[in-house]
Amino acid sequence: FLSLTVTDVDDNGRMSFDTEILYSLDTMHEGKPVEVTLTFYGDTPAYGISYKDASGATKNSTVTLSGEDGSLILTEF
């Protein structure tokens, strides 16, 4: 689980981030969820997740809230 700080926004609005690890697990297990309590301040992504997929590639996503229904949105960066 990551803290994000925006470092750049390109001409297309795509953001780049510096990251700080807030919490990590060696392995996640099916059926054992990780519960996190967050406070969202505004629209700029402040939190993210990072994980390795089955092939070993690192995937990073922002965690934001939908302005329509408050559901979580993960956007790869």
How would you sum up this structure in a few lines?
This protein is mainly beta. It is built from no helices and five strands. It has strands at 2-9, 15-21, 47-52, 58-65, 72-76.
Proportion in helices: under 10%
* Radius of gyration based on Cα positions: 13 Å
Provide a count of the helices: 0
Distance linking N and C termini: 14 Å
The number of strands is 5
| Average pLDDT | 94
Largest sheet: 5 strands, antiparallel
Strand content: 35-45%
Helix/strand class: mainly beta
Could you explain how this protein is built, in words?
By secondary structure, the protein is an all-beta fold. The protein starts with a strand and ends with a strand. It has a five-stranded antiparallel beta sheet, with no helix packed on it. It is built from no helices and five strands. It has strands spanning 2-9, 15-21, 47-52, 58-65, 72-76. The chain is globular and about 40 Å long.
Q: Which helices and strands, and how do they pair?
A:
Elements: E1 2-9, E2 15-21, E3 47-52, E4 58-65, E5 72-76
Antiparallel strand pairs: 1-2, 1-3, 3-4, 4-5
Features:
5 strands; mainly beta; about 80 residues
